[in-house]
Amino acid sequence: MFREVFGFCVLLSFCNAANILYLITYIGKSQYIMLKPIGLELARRGHNVTVITVFKEHDPPPNYHQVVVDENIFDAMGGKRPSHFTSVDLSAEERHNRFLWNGGLTLIEIVLNSTQVKQFLHADHNFDVVISEQFFQEAMYILAHKYNAPLVLITSYGNCMRHNIATRNPLQLATVMSEFLVVEQPKSFFGRLRNFYFTVYEYVWWRFWYLEKMDKLAREYVPDLKEPVPSLYQLQENVSLFLINSHFSVDPPTAYLPNIVEIGGVHLSPNISRLPKDLQKLLDDSKDGVIYMTFGSNIQSSKLPMDKRNAFLNVFRKLKLTVVWKWEDEHLENKPDNVVLRKWLPQNEVLAHPNIKVFISHGGLIGVQEAIYHGVPIIGVPIYGDQYNNLLQMQEAGVAKILQFHDINEQSLETLLNEILKDVSYKNRAKKISRRFKDRPMNPLDTAIYWIEYIIRNKGANYMKNPGLELSWIAYNMLDVYAFFVLLLLLFIYLFNKILSAVKSLITNKRVVEIRNGKMKDN
Ligand SMILES: *[C@@H]1O[C@H](CO)[C@@H](O)[C@H](O)[C@H]1NC(C)=O
């Protein structure tokens, strides 16, 4: 009986199978870790999934087709980047000007110009939906127009100001900080001023400089586009669904349109893979606990300046705990015996181990979400991008402490480590947050799949979009109505003044007459 029902379901889901194009073209490995379960799960549910990506999956289901860009893209992109530790002081604007805008343009040109993608774009394909990561790869969205399919965007970092503006979701500048902006007191007057300034800067550059260059790339490299070709901005205004990597249980509560859905934690599930045997043994045997330290997939901790590196080593040397450190070199001079180095670690599985006491992290969102999920307190050293904001939220929730890069020294490290290791309230709050992060009507992966399938079933579900899209910017922001009332008020003040002076002169005239009359009598 079970088998028949199961077989029927498979058959049924196969009947509803859609052709899905999934674009994960950014070169961030942690972003890929978050995004790939969505494509794989769609394939597992019977859809015919085609992925254009720079990372290759080695054992995917047969209906998961990969177009892998391998034009030495990492060399092409990585060569221009300085060490992250030397650029820790750049402002959000400087970071955009130096890396992000041009990085996005260079990356997409390489992707679109690669043999694999060219070949794919020249073949005949049909898709029911186009899903794309949303991170400096906008030219790819033109494929939604090419295949006449609804567009779904996914962020790997949470809410996005530019998209709030494009889709006309309320901006909420007073409570929602721009994703890449570092502001120590977001709600203060200067915090809000800074947020407003950056949002305007980013929007103007993005829309009127960067997107126009992306538009050109799209037209240049993507063949057979039906005229009229919409601008990439128009495509984003019309996005059918926007899945964002945040959740109100740990991020600021925000008002969202029905087609903006939070899927924070989408790559996490209770089924944890096994750790490699040696690592399992090491963690099991570390009865005094383990500190897990990494600066993520992008930032190499082996590039840490010598004084900072020594500070870590000298503090670790004094501890009974084991330290597992993601270290990308062969050697580490003066390494204490309780420090274990690995070039790569299955992070989620490590953080799931009950002996992990503290996570020393740069504050990348994926790692922070993994720590939240497994209830591990964090010492965070933010380096760039959204890291500071991710850590600030955790600090405010009482499960993390921020240690600014320039403040790393033996004393600050020792103080922080002692505080988090000795004060159990950090662990208790981390457990509490873990529980509420998981407490949802549907787990985030099912949520993501549900809404993607909903968009396919309902052919783009245009009715979910903000009707404000049909209004002019002035009308949508009610500026005409406000202007009307201001005019009314000015008119009122004007008339009031007029009447007042009329009455005044009437009274004065009367007095003059009276005085004159009086004087005449006296004489
Ligand atoms: C699945 O997608 C691929 C493109 O990657 C296409 O060649 C193939 O025909 C599709 N299969 C079905 C059953 O639609």
Please describe the structure with a list of short key phrases separated by commas or semicolons.
UDP-glucuronosyltransferase; Rossmann fold; transferase; binds 2-acetamido-2-deoxy-beta-D-glucopyranose; UDP_glucos_trans; alpha/beta; 11% strand; disordered N terminus; single chain; 523 residues; 19 helices; UDP-glycosyltransferase; seven-stranded parallel beta sheet; transmembrane
What does this structure look like?
- This protein is of the alpha/beta class and 523 residues long.
- It folds into three domains: 280 residues, Rossmann fold; 162 residues, Rossmann fold, CATH 3.40.50; 43 residues.
- It has 19 helices and 13 strands.
- The strands form two sheets. A seven-stranded parallel beta sheet has the order 3-2-1-4-5-6-7.
- α11 links the parallel β8 and β9.
- α11 packs across α15.
- The chain is globular.
- The site of 2-acetamido-2-deoxy-beta-D-glucopyranose has 5 residues, from β2.
List the helices and strands and how they pair.
Layout (H helix, E strand, L loop, with lengths): L1 H14 L3 E6 L4 H16 L3 E6 L10 E5 L4 H6 L13 H22 L1 H8 L6 E5 L8 H5 L4 E4 L6 H7 L21 H33 L10 H6 L3 E4 L15 E3 L14 H9 L4 E5 L11 H12 L4 E5 L12 E4 L4 H5 L4 E6 L3 H10 L3 E3 L6 H10 L3 E3 L7 H13 L1 H15 L5 H14 L15 H4 L2 H44 L1
Helix pairs in contact: 4-8, 11-15, 13-16
Bound molecules: 2-acetamido-2-deoxy-beta-D-glucopyranose.
